[in-house]
Write a structure and sequence with these properties.
- The structure is a single chain.
- By secondary structure, the chain is mainly β.
- The protein has one helix and nine strands.
- The chain has one domain.
- It is 7% helix and 31% strand.
- Strands 1, 2, 3, 4, 5, 6, 7, 8 and 9 form a nine-stranded antiparallel sheet that branches.
- A hairpin with a 5-residue loop joins strand 2 and strand 3.
- The longest helix is centred in the middle third of the chain and has 12 residues.
- It is globular, with a radius of gyration of 15 Å.
- The two termini are 17 Å apart.
């Protein structure tokens, strides 16, 4: 699939039809499921959300992540001031290996995934998106997550809100 987004979900077992997946562990080293990415057009699981397609890297090294998800039944617009402030805070700080929002549609914030390696792992404890919704810090195995260059600044949702943030260019149209 060519496009600006893929599907991501944290699932209990390694999915047979995912484009890539990696086992995850919690902070205490206990198994926490598998983080999976699908490159297909159709939504693969009920809990899957769209992410920046550049996140997928089958040669990516192990990483730690902050996975932010809203509580069940809660939906928040991207225009909400808490979401906007979290985005500003991400842009104001030193860049992580990757940051992508999670989407279910063009206007609702469904969480975020922040990827860190090396000394930046400790910064996950202060993930700005974790101020919006609860975060889980997980260790993710190799073969799934790459690096995404930090954008020059936030995009304006009205011009491309169907794409997970950050997105640093317009479509090819």
């Amino acid at each position: 699939m060519t496009g600006s987004w893929h599907w991501l979900a944290l699932v209990d077992e390694a999915p047979a039809h995912a484009s890539a997946s990696a086992p995850t562990t919690g902070p205490d080293g206990s198994p926490a499921g598998h983080l999976a990415i699908w490159t297909q057009r159709a939504k693969p699981t009920r809990d899957a959300r769209r992410v920046d397609a550049r996140l997928l890297d089958r040669a990516g090294a192990e990483a730690s992540v902050s996975l932010v998800r809203p509580p069940a039944g809660v939906r928040l617009l991207f225009d909400d001031l808490a979401v906007q402030q979290a985005r500003r805070a991400v842009l104001a700080a030193a860049p992580f290996d990757a940051v992508t929002t999670l989407l279910s549609d063009a206007s609702h914030f469904e969480g975020a995934l922040t990827v860190a390696r090396g000394r930046d792992v400790r910064r996950l404890a202060d993930d700005p998106f974790a101020r919006v919704f609860p975060a889980r810090v997980l260790r993710v195995g190799a073969g799934l997550l790459g690096r995404i260059p930090a954008p020059a600044g936030p995009v304006i949702e009205r011009y491309g809100s169907a794409r997970p943030w950050p997105w640093d260019r317009f479509g090819d149209a």
